[in-house]
Amino acid sequence: MLLISYDICNDKVRTKFSKYLSKFGFRLQYSVFEISNSDSVLKNIETEIKNNYMKLFTEEDSIIIFNMSETCKKTCYGYAKNEEKEVFVIG
What pTM value is reported for the model? Predict the structure, then answer.
């Protein structure tokens, strides 16, 4: 699983990037996507970032890719959209 977090100041660039990521996974939070991992998906995303987004960045922009292992545990609380059937709500 990949977690991709981004902070992009330009609204147009940020919207374009989020639409691009939505082809591969789903939005967990406003600037965080969860994507099923494969080497080809990761390579495609990294190539797209390097070729099309890095040149548009200011010093305030960043994208962070977390490559999570299969043994990594994910626990969700609240109302975040996710693929798991069970969601814990604390109220």
Answer: 0.79
pLDDT in tens, 31-73: 999 998 788 999 999 999 999 999 999 999 999 999 988 788 8
Mean pLDDT over the full length of the chain? 86
CATH numbers and ranges of domains, the chain = 2-67 (3.30.70.240)
Token readout for 51 is 């070729």
> 4: buried, middle or exposed (CB in 10 Å: 19+, 13-18, 0-12)?
buried
Beta bridge partners of 29: 32
**Token pair belonging to 22:** 């939505």
**Number of Cβ within a 10 Å radius of residue 70:** 6
| CA dist., res. 61 & res. 31, Å (int) | 12
